[in-house]
């Protein structure tokens, strides 16, 4: 899992010990703090409560720069709006908020990133992939219900609760999440996210909403099932990657897909519909027959369970367990049949390095046109 132990350094990871309520007064890290993981803006360590040594937590320490401070502030705000959900990391406490919170005490996930677990396992079998996907979507449906879009869903930001269970997850890292005003759904035009997981509407730099999380969950499901990414330019080339996304160059190639069901591929295909009004929302996607029935004996599955969307989901015939998926979906131009497995092209491999969040120092159309990076703040 890549956990390492490092000596305590100054200034203390827990911050100043200047009053009774300080994190340092309430928590301890031990002589050699165990590092749980690292992201682009923070490192996380295991800590325990001084009151009860049994209670272990994660201490997320943000880096000391303005970007990290923005992420810290935003994450804390969003986590507070979200409240508690079993599939979303819970904030227990934070540093003094002035000038900004530099440390968050979070509930602990000992199992590390889903990214590392996929790499360890190569890929998940369908039943386990289905269980993980279901939980991701439960978290996404919940946050969308609370008016929050995550915008950086990816296996690096999905944590395994324990070291010896491959399925139980929690979504973390709300650093670039956006909260809508009460009663509204969040919308934005900011170019934020992580390259391989960006939805086409984001790359086209259109106004977008929570549908981008459904797309990213679809990319993550593809990764869990196959150990590869659906859209990746040669050698990670950004321009090619973006082209593949906007053209929805989706293939189910290679050995990994040979033992996967048509239903699994259908699920991924629907999550990755270019037209966002056709893409299911998270709550609807939970009713897809793959998620409803995976792991059940085929003989016990009732064929009449329909996959119904509040919005139209597919342009073609409604799916049911009885019929093999023959899904027609739409690109910006004409509807076309979903690409089937062809097996004649090597699939993109799972990147060996984590995908950076690109708080967008770049404009997508600019990349497609071969020009320069620009800055964007979290809005
Ligand atoms: N609650 C937690 N339990 C265990 N590990 C955590 C926890 N929160 C964060 N981490 C580890 O720290 C990494 C970085 O945290 P993350 O929230 O993704 O912040 P960043 O914005 O820096 O990417 C995570 O990918 C994970 O490895
Ligand atoms: Mg992260």
Structure explained in plain terms:
The protein is of the alpha+beta class. The protein folds into 2 domains: 23-107, Phosphorylase Kinase, domain 1 (2-Layer Sandwich); 112-363, Transferase(Phosphotransferase), domain 1 (Orthogonal Bundle), CATH 1.10.510. Helices cover 27% and strands 13% of the residues. The chain has 11 helices and 13 strands. It has helices spanning 23-26, 66-82, 114-121, 126-145, 200-203, 211-226, 238-246, 262-271, 282-285, 289-293, 364-368; strands at 4-5, 27-28, 34-38, 42-49, 56-62, 91-94, 103-107, 148-149, 158-160, 169-171, 178-179, 328-330, 335-337. Strands 1, 2, 3, 4, 5, 6 and 7 form a 7-stranded antiparallel β-sheet that branches. It has a two-stranded antiparallel sheet with strand order 8-11. A hairpin with a 4-residue loop joins strand 12 and strand 13 (335-337). The two termini are 33 Å apart.
Short description:
This protein has 379 residues and is of the alpha+beta class. It has helices at 23-26, 66-82, 114-121, 126-145, 200-203, 211-226, 238-246, 262-271, 282-285, 289-293, 364-368; strands at 4-5, 27-28, 34-38, 42-49, 56-62, 91-94, 103-107, 148-149, 158-160, 169-171, 178-179, 328-330, 335-337.
């Amino acid at each position: 899992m890549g956990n390492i132990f490092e000596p305590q350094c100054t200034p203390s990871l827990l911050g100043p010990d200047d009053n009774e309520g300080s994190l340092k007064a309430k928590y301890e890290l031990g002589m050699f703090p165990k590092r749980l993981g690292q992201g682009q803006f923070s490192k996380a360590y295991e800590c325990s409560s001084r009151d009860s040594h049994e209670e272990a937590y994660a201490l997320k320490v943000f880096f000391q720069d303005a970007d990290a401070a923005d992420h810290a502030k935003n994450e804390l705000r969003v986590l507070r709006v979200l409240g508690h959900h079993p599939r979303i990391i819970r904030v227990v406490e934070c540093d003094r908020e002035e000038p900004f919170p530099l440390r968050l005490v979070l509930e602990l996930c000992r199992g590390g990133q889903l990214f590392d677990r996929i790499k360890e396992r190569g890929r998940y079998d369908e039943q386990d992939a289905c269980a993980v996907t279901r939980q991701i979507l439960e978290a996404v449906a919940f946050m969308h219900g609370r008016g929050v879009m995550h915008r950086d869903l990816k296996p690096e930001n999905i944590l395994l609760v324990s070291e010896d269970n491959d399925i139980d997850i929690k979504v973390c890292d709300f650093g670039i999440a956006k909260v809508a005003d009460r009663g509204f759904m969040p919308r934005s035009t900011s170019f934020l996210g992580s390259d391989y997981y960006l939805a086409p509407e984001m790359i086209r730099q259109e106004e977008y909403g929570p549908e981008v999380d459904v797309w990213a969950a679809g990319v993550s499901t593809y990764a869990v099932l196959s150990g590869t990414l659906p859209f990746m330019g040669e050698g990670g080339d950004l321009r090619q990657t973006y082209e593949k996304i906007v053209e929805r160059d989706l293939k189910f190639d290679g050995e990994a897909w040979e033992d996967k069901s048509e239903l699994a591929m259908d699920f991924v295909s629907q999550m990755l519909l270019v037209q966002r009004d056709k893409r299911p929302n998270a709550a609807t996607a939970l009713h897809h027959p793959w998620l409803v029935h995976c792991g059940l004996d085929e003989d016990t599955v009732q064929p009449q369970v329909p996959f119904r969307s509040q919005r139209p989901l597919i342009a073609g015939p409604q799916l049911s367990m009885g019929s093999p998926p023959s899904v027609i979906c739409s690109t910006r131009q004409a509807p076309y049949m979903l690409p089937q497995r062809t097996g004649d092209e090597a699939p993109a491999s799972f990147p060996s390095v984590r995908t950076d969040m690109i708080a967008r120092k770049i404009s997508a159309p600019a990349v497609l046109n071969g020009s320069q990076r620009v800055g964007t703040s979290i809005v």
